[in-house]
Amino acid sequence: MSKTSAPPPVGLPADSGSGGQGLSHGLKQRHLSMIALGGVIGAGLFVGSGAGIAQAGPSIVIAYALSGLLVMLVMRMLGEMSAANPASGTFSVHAERAIGPWAGFASGWIFWFLLCVVVGLEGIGAAKIMTGWLPGTPEWAWVALFTVTFCVANLAAVKNFGEFEFWFAALKVGAIVLFLGIGVLAIIGVLPDTDAPGVSNLTGEGGFLPNGTEGLVFGLLASVFAYGGLETVTIAAAESEHPVQGVAKAVRTAMWRIAIFYVGSMAVVVTLVPWNDPKVVAQGPYVATLDHLGIPAAAQIMNVVILIALLSAMNANIYAASRMSMSLVARGQGPKALGRTHRGVPRTAVVVSTAFGFGCVLLSYWRPDDVFMWLLNMIGAIILVVWFFVGVSQLILRRRTEREDPSRLVVKMWLYPGLTWVALAGMATVFVLMAREDDTRTQLLYSGGLTLALCLVGYVRQVLARAGAEKDGAGAEKDR
Fold first, then answer.
1. Buried b vs exposed e over 322-334: b needs ≥16 C-beta within 10 Å?
2. What is the per-residue pLDDT for 1?
3. Residue 404's pLDDT is what?
4. Which region ranges are annotated with the description Disordered (predicted)?
5. 439: CB partners within 8 A, 6+ apart
6. Exposed (0-12), middle (13-18) or buried (19+): which is 104, by Cβ within 10 Å?
7. Which parts of the chain register pLDDT below 70?
8. Which domains does the chain have, with CATH numbers?
9. What is the Cα–Cα distance from 267 to 201, expressed in whole angstroms?
10. Is 475 exposed, middle or buried (0-12, 13-18, 19+ CB in 10 A)?
């Protein structure tokens, strides 16, 4: 059994490497704390939120608050299960324990697929910034450089991943705190050469809901998928010095992190800048706000921050993808080679996950209009599917843990089972809203198709494994 996992229930293998050597405990508490703190700050917050503001107007604050509430509930549920049974396979392990091997297979591999594709997308985004600074240099070369750098870092030791993320997260958190500080000073009118805007940008230009409830719905959909990445801390916790305490601390601080970084920054943006300013979409809301306040070199400053956010996400996703695939293999859900570890690092899984991500980059150049778009549509709703597995798993495992070993419930879901059902209803609502919109409907169909295919494969594997076990048991009984 791996050093990183809790004892598995009867009939379920432990979450360990298959090479006879488990994962290490190379992450210190400072690494885990900063991963938890910086994990909520992605490039989507700095750039992607502009499209939501352009549709929802000032009501984007409500959209981020509602989606943030849903994410807090998901994080609390995931934290409860991960603190009770720390494992590098996190929600995939929980889904297998709660629902069955097919659920662990489907949720784990669909998340691995998401992470690998997103590694490629983040590499492309980072390369575009670099070619903007150094015109004439090829984008693919920058992507290759970043990919190789983080692959090598993850191959060496888990502490390298932790150090990268520690400093990346520190820079991201520092940038957000500085932005919020400047914004608050401008709002109250004490920033030099600026006048307090009052509520003019919140109530003017069409009011708080300029595009009605349809605009709010678009903003809600845009904001939900900006929160991806919170799951990494529960994966990393399995390799930390104190897994249970680390998860518990990360989950308990999730509420104020989401409120300050997401909801707070959106409130600052729409208070200071008119929501229909073209710069909000063209340059991103943070650049538009700093430009509006006359901050010198605002665009270049934010480009540095966005580059850091993209590189941080690349590093984190390579790490998470390798650990998820290793966990799946340890439970008999994938090729055995991916589960081999060397000095506590699943090196084959790191290389394969990185190569898959870079393959997606090549497809963006070779087949941008068909195969690559097909990949993008398939990952559109995956994070919501994963959250749904989390909710169903927690609903089942909480009751089982209370019956078998309530001392494991170091973190508890609030008002169980009521808020769990509320979270599941919220996810179902987002699915319905996605089905109503043309763009998101396509993503929902592709993601749904991939999920159903993996569920079917997982179920067939489960039936065959059970039949094989019964046959072996009958043969053993006959030999006696």
1. bbbbbbbbbbebb
2. 32
3. 94
4. 1-25
5. none
6. buried
7. 1-26, 36-40, 42-43, 472-480
8. 29-88+114-327 (1.20.1740.10)
9. 11
10. exposed
